[in-house]
Amino acid sequence: MKYFFLFLFTLNLFSSTLHLATSANPSRLNPILATDSSSGEITGFIFNGLVKYDKDSSTIISDLADKFYFKDNVTLIFELKKNVKWHDGEIFSAKDVVFTYKTLISPKIASPYSAAFRFVKSVKALDDYKIEVVYVKPYFKALETWMMGILPEHLLRDEDNLMSSKFNTNPIGTGPYRLYQLEHSKNIILTAFDDYFLGRPKIDRISFHVIADPMTRFLMLKSSALDIGSVEPMDYERQLNKMFFDKFNIYEEISHSYTYLGLNLRLDKFKNPNVRKALSLAIDRQEIVDILFFKHAKVCTGPFLPGTKAFNINVKAPTLNLEKAKELLKEAGYTKENPFTFEIVTSNSSSIRPYAAEILQHQLKKAGVVVTLRVMEWQAFLNMVVFPHKFDAVLLGWGLSSTPDPYMFWHTDNDKKGGFNLVGYNNPKMDKMIEESQTIIDRTKLSKIWQEMFQIITDDNPYLFLYIPNSITAVNKNIKNVSPSLSGIWHNYIEWEKNEIE
């Protein structure tokens, strides 16, 4: 046994490890099936797409592709890098790209990401390192589609059922890190890939500690057991001292995400638009922000990212109006003797959302609405509540892109198993607008349409949009070469170095 501990000591002495935390076990470490945040975060280190955003998320640049260009307005050509290896040493080639596309559109899998490929007419390998993608018509997100992680054809071509494949817990990618160890509810360890095509990462290992409890994650960060971690505003204002700031750099920016209360529109109780409006008018969003975030968040007014061309600056958050809320509920048949009642379900993976749910419960009570609460473990929440649509209302969040795809979240096509239209939103006018917008390349025209969608969605109240938190990230000062940008800190992580012993 003593030799085992000596081995571990030697390993730690001569290698660098980046210690991170994830709130839940990843469901599937497969880029086309990763729908939860933990899976998505970890697969990002293991797989590459053909293209990616630059550090400011403003320009699309090469990843596995060496070059890319449009031959005409429906034909996209990718010339692939020739020095790329899979983690098992096999050579990456065009056949992997074709295989990934065919897998994504196969009826054997349920992936919300398949929707992004709905306008693809064909994907053909012109040779081992050249791909031709033909679209049925011009598509405004033709390039972004190919940020999807590519799968290894040589390992999966004979797989009968990818949904339950061992590959999902033992992935092989082309990324800078490869999976070394997967211990559910304990540790997930990635090791640097020596043959990564952009050069071996300078940090040898990444260790994800699976910690469901937010307070435990925070205490581990304070004790330097974690190198990087998110800090909640309340903790930032009240729990951190000079000793912490001596050890950590703080990076704060508005997050590319929002939190919302999603109402299950499949249920009769939420089908009346005046009921949804009443609930919205009974919520004091600014109070939620003030109580939970101090100065580190803003009220969310709608579904698209502030500062982008899709954001509608003219749409304001509803103003608290309890009298109007009560009036609308009374018109819908709800009284003190027969109150409107529903349940809010959320997850304990966030330390903020359970408190937000309690504030919502308290605020809605003032309008005569009876709210019950249920807080669940993240994976159980997703698998038993969110994706089977077994809820009254969910308190959840979405990450936001600078180029939104309303089809995935707001079109009735995606009110299905595996789809991201979680609340069953069904608006024929919105469906038509989304379908017409898909072929518009002119970003000025798209901007006007997106902003109109923004208005329609907020008026319909399928979600009650709540807040956009700031992202507060603490990074141990032992981590060198961190370069913050508009997209955050992670864009150059393969260049990071860590001083293990000072």
Describe the model.
The chain has 502 residues and is an alpha+beta fold. The chain has 15 helices and 20 strands. A hairpin with a 2-residue loop joins strand 4 (65-72) and strand 5 (75-80). Helix 14 (428-437) runs antiparallel to helix 15 (443-460). The radius of gyration is 24 Å and the shape is globular.
Distance between the termini: 28 Å
Major sheet details: 8 strands, mixed
Structural category: alpha+beta
What characteristic shape results from the CA principal axes?
globular
Q: Strand portion, in percent?
A: 15-25%
Q: How many distinct folded domains?
A: 3
* Percent helix range: 25-40%
CATH class division of the largest domain: Alpha Beta
CATH structural architecture of the largest domain? Roll
Mean pLDDT: 93
Taking Cα atoms only, what radius of gyration do you get, to the nearest Å?
24 Å
Number of DSSP helical runs: 15
Per DSSP E runs of 2 or more residues, the count of β-strands stands at: 20
Name the CATH superfamily assignment of the largest domain: Dipeptide-binding Protein, Domain 3
